[in-house]
């Protein structure tokens, strides 16, 4: 929260105090150099080529123009995003090192084990950037034509259907567990370490269903009929899949999960720097060309205040904790 301080203009202020303020002000100003005064490092805690990496590079150019300094994207993947987030959290809190990350390293991973940072004490959320829908897809080996058909198959053949995700305790795994709990169905979880092999095996029919973030490559498989969209985790139906319901519309609001990504800074980053970053990112998110790029990739721009983002993170963390406890999910 930002506070403004106004110096009194009272004529009764002692002359000595006035002189003291006038002589001290330039010294104070000299100790706080202008920001930014060099290139910004934007850490992406995931491999190159993914959704967050692409958006980071789209964001870097207009943000650099607004701030007058280069914005250099630095991929630092590992440990479900926690390595890159930790590197950002431990950097100097001067506004020159940031991270564009999914919220899961702050709202999910801490419930599965100790993280090298405290998500509420070591990190300053700056602004929500985007929401990436999670698609529930049927593979060539799945006879279900829609989401209702999938539930019917799962009830008829407990444990026979295989559902692949990008890993244990991933967002797709939480989606599966919510369906298990609410619908009382038994589907076998098949966790992968990343999305590449997961898609390859799905196309070969080694699993019946998979959950994966929407993106150009995945959507190409859907358009070409290699994979069938059964439902989507998103605030609303996607323009590219108007016939596919959200999981909330299908009656499973708690499973209607999407990947939220945001901009983060180290704790104790100056409030005026956080406010400026929030302002500039919100401006970029309103640019027609930037929004067109996101929407064409089935990515939903978000934005908003840092306070609202902090509140969202707290709610998401509480929700994840309940699911993990109820389903007894453990990290790999």
Give a written overview of the molecule:
This protein has 332 residues and is of the alpha/beta class. The chain has 2 domains: 40-131 and 258-327, Bordetella uptake gene, domain 1 (D-Maltodextrin-Binding Protein, domain 2, 3-Layer(aba) Sandwich); 133-255, Periplasmic binding protein-like II (D-Maltodextrin-Binding Protein, domain 2), CATH 3.40.190. The chain is built from 11 helices and 10 strands. Strands 1, 2, 3, 4, 5, 6, 7, 8, 9 and 10 form a 10-stranded mixed beta sheet that branches. Strand 5 (162-165), helix 6 and strand 6 form a beta-alpha-beta unit. The two termini are 38 Å apart. The model is unreliable at 1-13 and 17-30 (pLDDT under 50).
Keywords:
332 residues; alpha/beta; D-Maltodextrin-Binding Protein, domain 2; 2 domains; disordered N terminus
Summarize the structure.
By secondary structure, the chain is of the alpha/beta class. Helix content is 39%, strand content 19%.
**Secondary-structure-derived class:** alpha/beta
CATH class of the largest domain: Alpha Beta
Report the end-to-end length measured between terminal Cα atoms.
Answer: 38 Å
| Helix fraction bin | 25-40%
Rounded Rg:
23 Å
Q: Judging by the overall fold, what is the CATH architecture of the largest domain?
A: 3-Layer(aba) Sandwich
Percent strand: 15-25%
**Number of folding domains?**
2
Q: How many beta strands in the DSSP annotation? A: 10
Unreliable residue runs: 1-13, 17-30
Elements, N to C (H/E): HEHEHEHEHEHEHEHEEHHEH
The CATH topology annotation of the largest domain reads as D-Maltodextrin-Binding Protein, domain 2
Average predicted local confidence, pLDDT: 89
Figure out the total of helices. Answer: 11
